[in-house]
Amino acid sequence: MAFVENSVGAYATMYAFADSEGDRPTTPTPASRAKRFGRIVPVTIMVLCGLFFTLPLLAMARFSLQNVPMIHLGWSTLFKKWSFSGITRAFGEQGFRDGLKLSSVLAVGTVVLTLGLLLPTALWVHLRVPKARAFIEFLTVLPYVIPPIALVAGIRVIKPHARWFLNSDLSLIPFYVVLALPFTFRALDAGIRAIDVKTLVDASRGLGAGWVTTMRRALIPNLRTAIISSAFLTATVVLGEFTIAQVLLKRTLPQFMAEYQSREGQGGMGLALLAIVATTTLLAILTLATRKRGQAQPISRF
Amino acid sequence: MSALTFNSVRKTFGPIVALEGLDLAVQPGELISLLGPSGCGKTTALRVAAGFEKADSGSVSVNGVDITNKPAHKRNMGMVFQSYSLFPNLTVALNVDFGLRTRGIASATRAKRVAEMLELVQLGDLARRYPHQLSGGQQQRVALARALAIQPEVLLLDEPLSALDAKVRLSLRDEIRRIQTTVGITTLLVTHDQEEALGIADRVGVMSSGRLEQLASPNEVYSNPASAFVARFVGSMNELPAVVRGADAVDVAGETIITPSARTQIPGTSILLLVRPEDLTLAPGTEPGLQGTVTSCTFQGAATVVGVRLDVLDVLVNAHVGSSVAGDLVPGQRVSVRIDGTRAVCEVAAAPIEMTEEPAPAA
Ligand SMILES: Nc1ncnc2c1ncn2[C@@H]1O[C@H](COP(=O)(O)OP(=O)(O)O)[C@@H](O)[C@H]1O
Ligand SMILES: [Mg+2]
Question: Which of A30, A240, A265, B8 sits most deeply, having the most CB atoms within 10 A of its CB?
Answer without folding.
Answer: A240
